[in-house]
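Dear colleague,

Thank you for sharing your sequence with our group. We've completed the structure prediction you requested, and as agreed, I am returning the results in plain text so they can be pasted directly into your records. Please verify that the sequence below matches your submission; if there's any discrepancy, let me know and we will rerun it promptly.
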Amino acid sequence: MSPATSRSGHGSPRQDHPKRDQNGWWRRGSRRCRGESGQVAGIEAIPFGLLVFVVGVLLVSNAWAVIDAKLTVASAAREATRAYVEAPAGSDPSALALDAAAEAVRGGGRDPARLTLTAVSGSFARCEKVTFAASYPVPAITLPWIGGFGDGFIATARHTEIVDPLRTGVPLGGERCDAVAA
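Please find the predicted structure tokens below.
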């Protein structure tokens, strides 16, 4: 084995072993690090990277707020329509629908006062197709623990169901019920 190769047998040149100077610091050979040679630039990239990270977290948070609002509004429209078509005879189905939608929004962790619920079509009669639309405003910027700021999006959803054609105590309605009633 030649003295210029390492003992590992890979053929790489042998490097000097580190030695201690008079202060007890380890050094390679007799060279000392002075000046900026060998320093890595880029310390200014840390604040930029932190800024990109914060903007990314806000973007993901806002996207999730829109998805969450859409899921909540879809649940509110579904529950309102279901409460309306399943309302007991002699009750106020519109009030039951509004209560069910508010409870669905409250269950989603949102303020029911900001929900807009609209009966799009149908009436409380057998075989009637009833449609409810629900909408909820989503702020432009949503910050965790602080809340939302600005006018952003309006999440909307619709749900349609048919009042049971064989219900008792509910008036007959629609052309489709003629075949069921006969």
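Summary note from our side: The beta strands are 18-20, 26-28, 116-121, 129-143, 147-162.

Kind regards,
the structure core
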